[in-house]
Amino acid sequence: MVISLSVVVLLLVFVCLFLRGGGLKPSHALVCVLFGFLLAGSSLAATVHDGLTATAEAVSGLDP
C-alpha cells in the first residue's frame, strides 16, 4: 500500500508540474485519469501492479 501511495503522489506532482508548465492541458489530464481508472478495473491491473512492485524493489536495492 505504501508503494502505490508513493507512486500516486509522485504522479500527482508530475501532473501538477506539467499543468503549470503548459505542457499538459486539463483535458489531457482528465483523459489520463479516466484511462487510469479503466486500467485499474481491467485484467491488466495485476500485471501493472506486479511490474511497479518489481521496479520499486529494484530501485530500493540500489546503493547510491
Strand/helix succession: HHH
- End-to-end separation: 25 Å
Query: How many distinct folded domains?
Result: 1
Share of residues in helices = over 70%
Helix/strand/pairing class, anyone?
mainly alpha
Radius of gyration, CA atoms, in whole angstroms: 14 Å
Largest sheet: none
Number of helices: 3
Q: Strand-residue fraction?
A: under 5%
Low-confidence stretches: none
Estimate the mean pLDDT confidence: 79
The number of E-state strands comes to 0
The coarse overall form would be flat
Describe what is shown at a glance.
It comes from Streptomyces subrutilus. The protein has one domain (3-61). It has helices at 2-21, 26-40, 45-60.
Please characterize this protein's 3D structure:
This is DUF2304 domain-containing protein. This protein is an all-alpha fold and 64 residues long. The protein has one domain (3-61). It contains three helices and no strands. It is flat. 0% of the residues are buried. The mean pLDDT is 79.
List the helices and strands and how they pair.
Elements: H1 2-21, H2 26-40, H3 45-60
Provide tags for this entry.
single chain, 80% helix, 64 residues, 0% strand, flat, mainly alpha
